[in-house]
Amino acid sequence: MLRTSFGRPLRRSLVRYYVEPVPKHVPSNNNLEHTLSHKELREQAIAEALAREEEAIQKSKQIRELTEKSKELITVLNKTPTTLMNERIAKLNQDLSKIPQDKIKQLDEQLREYMINNMHLTDDIIENRPWANKNLKNGRKISAKESESKASSMTNQYTSQFPNLKPTPDYKEYSEQELYLRQLDHLRTSGALGSRLENVYKPQRDTTNPPSITQTTISNLMAAGCHLGHATSSFRSNFQPFIYGTYNGIHLIDLNQTISQLQTACKVIEGVSEKGGVILFVGTHKNWSIQESLVAAAERAKGYYVSKRWIPGTITNYIEVSKQIKDPSMKQQIDMENKPLNSAVTSNSIIKPDLVILLNPVENRNCIKECLSACIPTIALCDTDMEPSLITYPIPCNDENVRSVNLMLGIMSKAAEAGVKRRLDIIKQLKETERQAAKQQLQESQQDPFQEGAAL
Fold first, then answer.
1. Mind listing the pLDDT tens digit for each residue in 417-427?
2. Domain residues for 221?
3. Residues sharing a CB contact under 8 Å with residue 283, sequence separation 6 or more, in sequence order
4. Which of 127, 166, 280, 306 could crosslink 353 through cysteines, CB 3.0-4.6 Å?
5. Which segments show compositional bias classed as Low complexity (predicted)?
6. In-domain check, residue 71
């Protein structure tokens, strides 16, 4: 008799009894076929769903394209003359007479359903249709003149401004023209929102459009850093009247003295320029911004400038130094109107400036010595390390800061420009007076023979 243990059969061997484990789930042939068929059905269902979704996407795309094309055709149809419309309707009726009536009825139903479901026309297009004379919203009659005016206004709104603009469909991206127009519309509606900065400092204005001395205040000088001097160790004792105090080991310049000295210097520059004097700007700074301001100031003042290096003997030994100038066009005389004369400059003639303006006098001590020996007045930006007694009209100011140097240079060149303008106005007025006097003299000379004949 065979025994059972935990529901498992025991088999007898020749030597002993042993337990043979039986697998819990042994798949049969029917179950395997059922599993495979279920997997295939699932994959088939997924493939069919994807195909239906792709077909729906393609169909919706075709409907959108057809809708846009239909709108364009409706727009063209609205602009078609009545005579052409009658001809097309007659031809269409002739073609439809060859088709069975049931198919025509089915086609009409499909077109009506398509128009109701997909064609969402705007009110201006609906009101402008020849076959519709009612407003869908208000339910009132619309006259032909009113509909024509609305259509023309809507058309002119876009075609007059953007005649070459072609709108893109809703499912496509915006074109470059539409993006540009949207940006312009955003700037018109929302571009002015937010904070607005006013009185913003722009460094190029000190060169292109500098302020005049009447527009300059102490706050402008302080903002430009004109009050910052050198270290107290490099202080000159004669500069004491221009010192305001010390801060963190440097001297502070009194800007009240600065603006007072600047006003005096501007009056001198304006007077020299008005009398036709030669003004020479000397600035050997290596900063490109100061170099540009120096050139612009010399052009504005109708003067001259030295920007690279001061050649020793340019004033005191002019005859020897001028021999290095080989080009004769570099030597020419000008009149009071700053126009070149035909007379050439001889080699023995000595030309000296009437006023020298120095931007960095410490580096140009040779120029100062030559001006002192030739009795030429000088104007210089004197820092706390400069001896102001060597300068005729010293201006206490920071001579190393780019902004302060450009500001001072622009103010002084503006004063020279005012003097040049006043001189040219005087010359113009003088020429006008001479012309009127000559004209009057000519008229008197023409009238004298008649008066003599009448006397005889």
1. 999 999 999 98
2. 203-323+333-342+349-434
3. 290, 291, 294, 305, 306, 307, 358, 359, 360, 405, 409
4. 280
5. 438-447
6. no
